Amino acid sequence: MTDLHKQKQRGEYAKTGAKRVAILDAALEVFAQVGYGAGSLREVAARVGMSEAGLLHHFPTKPALLAAVLDRRDQHSQEWVRMAEGDGDVTLRGLITTAVRNASTPGIVELYCVLSAEATQPGHPARDYFIARYEEARTNLCMAFEDLARQNRTRPGVVPRSAAIATLAMMDGLQVQWLLHPEVVDMAAELADFLTAFVDIDLTISS
Predict the structure, then answer these.
(1) Which end of the chain is more exposed for a tag (fewer CB within 10 A), N or C?
(2) Which residue, among 29, 15, 28, has the nearest Cα to 57 in the 3D structure?
(3) Is the residue at 68 inside a domain?
(4) Model pTM?
């Protein structure tokens, strides 16, 4: 294989990768605006200036596109939140950061809330994703509370796994209340206040 051919291949791979990213970002917008059920592949394709057939070359089915969109969302989250370091202080502050950032993307929050509820149905294309995501989140949060317990920074009687489950439930509930009454509910502030029932950490949000 000549160097020119190798360069051409790398250029084609780069273009393909860029096109996939553009499709995922467009799909995230469409699903966030109108929901997964109502969001059409045709609309996603139109937003990136390609045909539906061209989109299907990259993502052969709508469920496959949804799975990739959810992974893309997680990649964005991991760029600004460190969650899996086994450091309780860092992890809990990461949750507060997540709540702050979520308040700037209502469409994404709504998509997540709707999909997580729909995914409780057997056979839903996002079911496996949410099962795995909740398991990972419970594990990471449990490790965080265990780390803080070793430092004697948890409140008396706190059970790490129970605290992890309650924290996730609180975050999900806050998201729903915030979507309904954003002018009333401050997700980040309420979450920070909630966590102080479990840990002896100043989680005050600086303005």
Answers:
(1) C
(2) 15
(3) no
(4) 0.78
